[in-house]
Amino acid sequence: MKLLVLLSALSTAAFGNIPHLPLELSFEESKAIYASMDAGQRKGIKNTSIRTAIAGGERLSQWIDLINSQRSETSAIRLTSKETQRGIPVESPSKYGPSTIEQKLNELIRDMPESMTNIIYNQGDLTQTTPIEDAIFIEWGRKVSRLYQSAVRWETFKPWRSQMAQRRFRDIRGFYHLRKIQDLDQTLQAYTTLSTDEQNQLKSHLEMICLNTTQNESSCAREFMSALSASKLVEFKNRYWNRSKRIWNSFFDIVNPRRDVTWESPTLMEVIFKDPKNSKIAHWLKDNVEDEFQIPELNWSLEMNFVERGFGLSHLEFQKNTTPHVSGGNKIVMDANTPLEEYNVRWTIRHEYGHILRLPDCYHEFYLPEENLMMSYQLDISDLMCSRVGAMNERIYNELKSVYFKR
After folding, report:
1. The dihedral of CA 66, 72, 75, 77: what is its sign?
2. In 10 A of CB 110, how many CB atoms?
3. Rounded to whole angstroms, how far apart are CA atoms 247 and 379?
4. Tens place of pLDDT for every residue, the chain, 407 residues?
5. What is the spatial distance between Cα 17 and Cα 163, in angstroms, rounded to a whole number?
6. How far is it, in rounded angstroms, from Cα 259 to Cα 270?
7. How many CB atoms sit inside 10 A of residue 302's CB?
8. Total Cβ atoms within 10 A of residue 8
9. Domain layout of the chain by residue ranges
10. Which residues are CB-contacts of 320 (< 8 A; sequence separation ≥ 6)?
11. Domain 261-404 belongs to what topology?
């Protein structure tokens, strides 16, 4: 099978050349990924449900384009908004793959209004108007879009399943849950007095932090039972705690900070950016970044200043059919096909500018071979760098301050 080619649009992750795809991509971003697929990869999609889910999403996109061609900008059909973002919390990770896509596709075809099903999945003639109320059309359109996105994402990562499986060893959920337990050592010492559910949860969490270090599930299971029989669960936890903590911190800590950031006044952080030479884009960029990177309660804000030239300047480029990303640490690449006014586009430039400041992504995704599913979650859905429902917060402020503030 030919490997997926994502053009220059996709940066690569640390594990081999796995395509780097942010979680919660928009419909437009997923379409760009599918458009960049190698023709052989598209033809190689054998699973009927996945092929149908992708074809349905493409059909919906054509239909929305036709409907919007008859409408003004303010009345156009849009599937994304700030209010519809969901987030993927650690407590409720997302799983997707052939089995879940088939199940959700069958439910969609069964439950969606027939007037939409006929056009989206049965190739009925496209109409210039919505056959039902806009709100209902958008509600079901989002479900078609989400299924399409899962199918495209699955096909993108399918050639990399063995590498994605190795990412499981950075699954930090065990540490996440254990660190929230007050008096953890006392709880572990009282393990045998706990309910069966509580014991099973602790066992799972402890084996997971072991897995962060040993990368061997069977070995961790044996070690846990040995520690339990010897009443040494606290020692078991301590043996693996620091490694898990380092993995956790790697999702949040700035590495290789910028040298062109000025933060001398406690209330103002100043940054420079290459002038886009387009007033509309310049205003859009500055307004979004400065609106996001501020903490009114602390009387703190970021100020972006445009300059003509300079070594290693951060800058902005637009490319067609691209997944937004930061390339080389300085270049933000955005999709030229998506309107600047879209909520997801406005959120994305704020998130990507976080990467310019060297803030890492705080979400995780990996493959579960035993289930033939991908799993993903966000470490904090309230955080700008973790989730599309997230925003600038005191955690980000403190990290920026620890690195850039010159006392």
Report:
1. positive
2. 8
3. 12
4. 222 333 333 333 334 478 888 888 888 888 888 988 888 888 889 999 999 999 999 999 999 999 999 999 889 998 877 777 789 999 999 999 999 999 999 999 999 999 999 999 999 999 999 999 999 999 999 999 999 999 999 999 999 999 999 999 999 999 999 999 999 999 999 999 999 999 999 999 999 999 999 999 999 999 999 999 999 999 999 999 999 999 999 999 999 999 999 999 999 999 999 999 999 999 999 999 999 999 999 999 999 999 998 889 999 999 987 888 999 999 999 988 888 888 888 999 999 999 999 999 999 999 999 999 999 999 999 999 999 999 999 999 999 999 999 97
5. 9
6. 12
7. 22
8. 11
9. 27-159, 173-250, 261-404
10. 32, 335, 336, 337
11. Collagenase (Catalytic Domain) (3.40.390)
Residue with tokens 């509600």: 139
Q: Name the H helices within 76-231.
A: 98-111, 114-120, 134-157, 161-166, 173-178, 184-189, 196-214, 217-229
Phi, psi of 289 (to 5 degrees): -65, -45
pTM exceeds cut of 0.85 = yes
The one-letter amino acid at 211: L
